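FIELD: query
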Amino acid sequence: MTTAGPLAAPSSSDQVGIASLTQKVMAAWAYHDADSFADLFVEDGTMILPGIYRNGREEIRQYLAEAYQGRYKGTQVTGKPMSMRSLGSDAAILLSYGGVLESGESEVSSKGAVRASWLVVKRDGEWRLAAYQNTPANAA
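FIELD: result
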C-alpha cells in the first residue's frame, strides 16, 4: 500500500472561488432564497444536517423552501473557512466554522455553532457543492 503525503492547498484563484461559496450560501440564506441556495450544488449533490439528509438539488431546494417558512424563518447564517485542501484540479475539501443566527443575534451562540465540511467540485469553470455536512461544534 502506498501512502500519499499531505494534501496540497488549491491554487490562489481556486481558493477564492471555493471560499466564495460560503459567501454565496450566506447571501442565499439572507434572502431565504431556496433556489439560489440549491443551485450552488451539483445536480446530485448531498446536504446532511443534524437529523436531515437530502440527496439531489431538488430535495435540497424543497427542504429549504419549507424550512425558511418554518424552523429557519427570520434566521441568518454565518461562517468562515478554517482550512482548504485540494483533491485534484477539480475537487477540494473546505472546512468551516459558523452557524445559524436566530432573529436578533449578531453572533452564533455556542448552541448554534457548527463545524462543516464542504466537498466541492469544479464544473464548467465554477466551483459547486457536491456534498455539505455540518455538526454541532460543541458537545451537548
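FIELD: remark
The first strand starts at residue 41 and ends at 49.
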